[in-house]
Amino acid sequence: MELLVRSYLPPDREGLVSLWAVCGLVRPWNDPYRDIDRKLARDPENLLVVEHDGEVVGSVMVGYEGHRGWVNYLAVHPDHRGRGLGRRLMERAEELLGRLGCAKVNLQVRSSNEEAIGFYRRIGYSVDDSVSMGRRLEVDGP
């Protein structure tokens, strides 16, 4: 199986949003199209996709603000799980962040997503003793 990990390209848009939906990452309050546009306006080279036979089957969005690196939208299509693709994407994300001088990577996982929590634990991540807080500055949905 030949897989290509590369930066996002405009023709990937619908396939990427479809992947995120299949993986349960889309929520009404986060418009995935706007999330893509926001990323492309900031640092488009750090939105990665995995292509297989012309289809988007994996993704990761990487960010760095000078203090911590962040990983968002890690997704692997259910038909492609169990083959090390998620691990490969996280390794690529960590490489990108390391080149930027990042000392620590953070990510958020919904507490109900036990499968993702297990995955991150297996690759060396642990739960930080902190509380995640947020406030919307732009309203994408209801």
The CATH fourth-level homologous superfamily: Gcn5-related N-acetyltransferase (GNAT)
Oligomer: single chain
Proportion of residues in helical segments: 25-40%
Shape: globular
Low-confidence stretches: none
Strand content: 15-25%
What would you report as the Rg, rounded to the nearest angstrom? Answer: 15 Å
Q: What is the H/E order?
A: EHHEEEHEH
- What is the second-level CATH architecture? 3-Layer(aba) Sandwich
Number of domains: 1
Number of helices: 4
**CATH topology heading:** Aminopeptidase
CATH class: Alpha Beta
Largest sheet: 5 strands, mixed
Kindly state the number of beta strands: 5
> How do the strands line up in the largest sheet?
1-2-3-4-5
Overall pLDDT: 95
Q: Structural class of the helices, strands and pairings? A: alpha+beta
- For the termini, the CA-CA separation is 41 Å
List the helices and strands and how they pair.
Layout: E1 4-7, H1 13-22, H2 32-42, E2 47-52, E3 55-64, E4 69-76, H3 85-99, E5 105-107, H4 114-122
Parallel strand pairs: 4-5
Antiparallel strand pairs: 1-2, 2-3, 3-4
